[in-house]
TrEMBL record:
Transmembrane segments: 6-23
Keyword list, A-Z: Membrane, Transmembrane, Transmembrane helix
UniProt-listed InterPro entries: GlpE_sulfurtransferase, Rhodanese-like_dom, Rhodanese-like_dom_sf
Name this protein carries in UniProt: Rhodanese-like domain-containing protein
Organism superkingdom: Bacteria
CDD domains, per the entry: RHOD (cd00158)
UniProt xrefs under SMART domains: RHOD
Rhodanese domain boundaries: 40-124
Length: 128
C-alpha cells in the first residue's frame, strides 16, 4: 500500500512539473507553424540549438549553430533587440533554450513547431 501511495505522489509531482513548465513556456515563447516560421526568420536571428554534428548533417538555410550545451557561455552572441527564431530536432532543447533566454531579458522568442524533423523547407548540409 505504501508503494502505491509513493507512486501516486510521484505521478502528481511529475504532472504538476509538466503543467507548470508548459505554462512558463507559453508566456516565454511563441510557437510558429513552418509557414509562419518561414515568413519571419529571414528578418530575425535563426538559431539551431542542436549539437554541431546534427547541424552539419543538415540545417535550415541561414541558421547559426549555438548548441544548447554551450548556450550558457554563448548566449551573448545572440542580440536581445532582434527576434530570435529557435529550433532543435523536436522542440525539447529549443524550449529549454527559450526559457533560458527569456530569463536573460530576451522578449521576441519564436519556436518552430515540431522542430527540424518536420521541416520541409530548404536545408543545407556539409558534403561528406
Amino acid at each position: 500500500m505504501d508503494i502505491l501511495i509513493t507512486i501516486g505522489i510521484m505521478l502528481v509531482v511529475v504532472i504538476a512539473y509538466i503543467v507548470i513548465n508548459s505554462m512558463r513556456l507559453k508566456k516565454a515563447v511563441t510557437n510558429l507553424t513552418q509557414e509562419q516560421f518561414i515568413e519571419g526568420y529571414r528578418k530575425a536571428q535563426l538559431i539551431d540549438v542542436r549539437e554541431q554534428k546534427e547541424f552539419e548533417a543538415g540545417h535550415i538555410l541561414g541558421a547559426r549553430n549555438v548548441p544548447s550545451t554551450t548556450l550558457r557561455q554563448r548566449y551573448k552572441e545572440i542580440r536581445p533587440d532582434l527576434p530570435v527564431y529557435l529550433y532543435c530536432q523536436n522542440t525539447g532543447r529549443s524550449s529549454r533554450a527559450a526559457l533560458f533566454l527569456k530569463k536573460r531579458g530576451y522578449n521576441q522568442i519564436y519556436l518552430l513547431q515540431g522542430g527540424f524533423r518536420t521541416w520541409t523547407g530548404k536545408i543545407k548540409s556539409k558534403k561528406q
